[in-house]
Amino acid sequence: MNAQTPYPLAQPHDPLHEVLPNIYRVRGSVSVRAPFIKYGPLTLSFSRNMYVVKDHDDLTLINSVRLNEAGMARLSALGKIKNVIRLAGFHGMDDPFYRSQYGATVYSVDAPYTKGMSKAPKPGDIYFQPDVVLTPDSPLPIKNALYTEIRSATPKDGLLILHRDKNIMISGDSFQHWPKPDPLFNVTAKILMRLAGFFKETSIGPGWRNYAKPDIQELIHIANTEFDCLLPGHGEPVLKDASQRFLQRLQKMR
User: How many Cβ atoms from other residues are within 10 Å of residue 132's Cβ?
Assistant: First the structure.
């Protein structure tokens, strides 16, 4: 849990806060090399979300983000870190940290943990193996939850649906709600991601869609699953009428 561990260090993030009963959110960040720029140190820094589902004293982290010391103290005060669920095939860099340091069981979408974005990674580019590879029939460590995935995408992208007072869907890279850049964006990301079609309400992530090539009809089928709330891997939570709003967007994308 210090700078000497062989895991990516904590990057800037906001405080942990409760977004729905017993569901907490941390808006974290990640920095990556700007695409299509071969020379120079230009990087994109942008936000990503981790959600924490609390069940008595057990915590399940979804789309994990490593936190700084103050953040880890706040997280540990909530309960015991028992599980990590990886929904996005392009995420997962902080999962090894939570398994190593807290003994968390790691559940993952059926997509390799790989350096880079190759659809056919070499064995040497795969840096981690989860404890459980998820399928739609997998038992989950969250009560009244259903796992599904976008099978037409490469790599696959997972989704969790929590059956509570209002059905809640938690996404990876696919279903997003990013009306505008937030304070964790750097200038490069604000410019390049706006040009790439980001910063729209209730949309499908354009970078993910262009690379993973999902079938729009499959996305429409998923959006037809009634969920009132969306907790996206990127962007802001949608706390009302989420499925209807995504259906309207997807109909325009056909």
Answer: 15
User: How far is 31 from 115, CA to CA, in rounded Å?
Assistant: 14
Contact 90, 117 (CB under 8 A): yes
pLDDT digits (tens, 9 = 90+) for 129-141: 999 999 999 999 9
User: Alpha helices, DSSP H only, in 4-108?
Assistant: 69-78, 95-102
**CATH label of the domain that carries residue 98:** 3.60.15.10
What is the reported pTM? Answer: 0.94
In a domain, 2, yes or no: no
Q: State the residue range of the domain holding 135.
A: 17-253
pLDDT in tens, 163-191: 987 899 999 999 999 999 999 999 999 99
pLDDT tens track for 65-89: 999 999 999 999 999 999 999 999 9
**Is 1 contained in some domain?**
no
Q: Measured over all CA atoms, what is the biggest interatomic distance in the chain, rounded to whole angstroms?
A: 51
| 3-class SS shares of the chain: helix, strand, coil, % to 5 | 20, 30, 45
Task: Tell me, yes or no, whether 65 lies in a domain.
Answer: yes
* Spatial CA neighbour of 181 closest among 127, 101, 235: 235
Q: Which two tokens stand for residue 44?
A: 């994109």
Domain assignment present for residue 3? The answer is: no
Structure tokens at 210: 């262009």
Half-sphere exposure of 169 (CA within 13 A, CB side): 28
Task: Please count the structural domains in the chain.
Answer: 1
Total Cβ atoms within 10 A of residue 56: 8
